[in-house]
Design goal:
There is one protein chain. This protein has about 80 residues and is an alpha+beta fold. It has a single domain, classed as GIY-YIG endonuclease (3-Layer(aba) Sandwich), CATH 3.40.1440. About 45% of the residues lie in helices and about 25% in strands. The chain is built from 3 helices and 3 strands. It has a 3-stranded antiparallel β-sheet with strand order 2-1-3. A hairpin with a 4-residue loop joins strand 1 and strand 2.
Length: about 80
């Protein structure tokens, strides 16, 4: 199984969209273990949205959709619903 996820950093008002086969380990990487990369600058991250897929290809396709302008609009709506 592959999980497409959206993270939100309330303190910096940033979003991150990605996919993984191990969401728990990936969250540890984003919030604690990671030493480099874009997400370390905007910690802490909270999960706003997840979807599961059988294949990596399906997850990659959905991630790409969420990163489009329409997808980002959908993601920000999810953020607004959760954080007002």
């Amino acid at each position: 199984m592959f999980t497409v996820y959206v993270l939100y950093s309330p303190s910096h008002e940033k979003i991150y969209i990605g996919y993984t086969s191990n969401i728990e380990q990936r969250m540890l990487s984003h919030n604690k273990l990671g030493k480099k990369g874009w997400t370390i600058r905007y910690r802490p991250w909270e999960i706003v949205f997840t979807e599961e897929f059988e294949t990596k290809a399906e997850a990659m396709q959905r991630e790409k959709q969420l990163k489009s302008s329409k997808g980002r609009e959908y993601v920000w709506n999810c953020v607004d619903k959760k954080y007002g």
